[in-house]
Amino acid sequence: MSAEILIIDDNPDIRNILNILILEAGYKTRVAANYNQALNEIDKKLPDVAIIDVKLDKGDNDGIELLSHIKKKNKDIPVIIISGHANIEMAIKSLKNGAFEFIEKPFDQNRLLNFVNRAVENFNLKNQNKELETKLFHSFDLVGKSPNILKIKEQIEKLSNSDSRVFIFGPTGSGKELIARKIHKMSKRSKSPFVILNGALLDIRKYELELFGEEKANGAISYGSLEKASGGTLLIDEISEIPLETQSKILRVLIDQKFKRINGNHDVKVNVRIICTTSKNILNEIKFGNFHEDLFYRLNVFQINIDPLNKRIEDIPLLIDYFSKKISESYNLKKLDIKSDNTYLINHYWPGNVRELRNLIERVAILANNNPEKISMIIKESIKQETSEILQEDNFSIPLKEARENFEKDYLTTQLKKFGGNVSKTAKFVGMERSALHRKLKDLGVKDLN
Fold first, then answer.
1. Residues 6 or more apart from 96 whose CB is under 8 A from it?
2. Which of 47, 246, 385, 433 is such that its CA lies 20 to 30 A from the CA of 184?
């Protein structure tokens, strides 16, 4: 399918030249002659690439405003900025705002067409990566042997014959969406849609449009997530980020089992299972007035808690093996030779949780060419950078004694977990006498893990 290029310029001759040039190159085109036309075209349908003149009919920086408008909708769309009044400051401003390229008028047609070709390739590559990521994610299993993961698997099994609402709690990157997908896949709604409404990413003005849809003046209907998920499951991801006013309307939908589209006059009945997630302490959010208590108790019929990866040490080797195999298959590579007992990986704090581990293994697959030395180097460098950032964020604002105690407590707890709570084996590994380690653990308040 041919890419579509949106051409925005108030000069009819320039518009015509660009239109012919791009059509002859085999692309589709749309054109806009002023700021308002451009806004309408962008809102009607996002292009694959946009070419925008900086100065239109409303002011000196119309093009920069349109660039920002596109980037808010989809940051991956390449935008080429052109200008007949160019200066270095304007070029820098364009690039800082996310422009793909900046070119002065009069422009060389071959150079501009080269920019367009590269922009289309860039957009297509990002889309392919997203598709691969989606395909990978959808095929992932809930991997682990920790008590936390075994309990969650048991909970999912129990939920398979239920239509109960579910609230999933856990830190960012721990696997909340994966759990929601598994619940849907094992339910009687599995053949119906699974729709995600991301509470953390939506434009604050568009929550209700995304949820309820809209009836337009020309009779057209824009369907919201509630209707798109009809008969299936709606996952409201990071629901704690949704504004209070919209929370009240969600509560009303749960009570009435119906809603009206924006500008609509007729009730739409709801037949959807709702699963919610949050990485925040929801009781604190209620206490501080950021989340409706009534809505929480309506949604929290069945609760699932997933621990951060650093509290599930025994799952790390299994996840390393699993992702190494899965990602190797996706890239048509021989299985990655990553040691599942790699000390750097086992002892890392994993602030990004399972997602961070998966991303690291994918980085290794792309960059290391299954070379053991390169694999080791990439792992060490990645973890070193993450550890440095954690130290800067968490430990530089407290006294040295407290920072040292924090590190010792985390380090020794991790080692104990690695050796299944065996103090003798842990003492031998860390280079301490068994009795000295016992005293140290007692002083740090580390409880016996057995």
1. none
2. 246
pLDDT (0 to 100) of residue 379: 83
Q: Give helix 12-24 / helix 109-139 axis angle, nearest 10°.
A: 60
Instruction: Count CB neighbours of 108 within 10 A.
Output: 10
Q: In the prediction, which pLDDT does 428 show? A: 84
**SS3 call for 166:** strand
Distance in angstroms (rounded) separating the CA atoms of residues 381 and 366: 15
Residue 107 Ramachandran class (φ > 0 left, ψ -120 to 50 alpha, else beta): beta
Domains of the chain with CATH codes: 4-134 (3.40.50.2300), 147-307 (3.40.50.300)
Number of alpha carbons in the 13 Å side-chain half-sphere of residue 351: 12
Q: Taking Cα atoms as reference points, which of 120, 415, 162 lies closest to residue 302? A: 162
**Hey, what are 200's tokens?**
């953390």
Element housing 304 (H / E): strand 302-305
With beta carbons less than 8 A apart as the criterion, state whether 201 and 249 touch.
no
Give the pLDDT of residue 178. 93
Question: 64 with 157: CB under 8 angstroms?
Answer: no
CA-CA distance, 166 to 307, in Å (whole number)? 17
CB 434 within 8 A of CB 427: yes
- Judge whether 104 and 82 are in contact, CB under 8 Å: yes
pLDDT digits over 223-246, tens only? 889 998 989 999 999 999 898 999
Q: Tokens 């041919």 map to which residue? A: 2
Residues written for the chain = 450
Query: What are the angstrom distances between the C-alpha of 411 and each of 223, 404, 418, 430, 440?
Result: 51, 10, 11, 10, 12
DSSP track, 16-76: HHHHHHHHHTT-EEEEESSHHHHHHHHHH---SEEEEES--SS-TTHHHHHHHHHHHH-TT
CA–centroid distance for 374 within its chain: 28
For 428, residues 6+ apart whose C-beta sits below 8 A from its C-beta are none
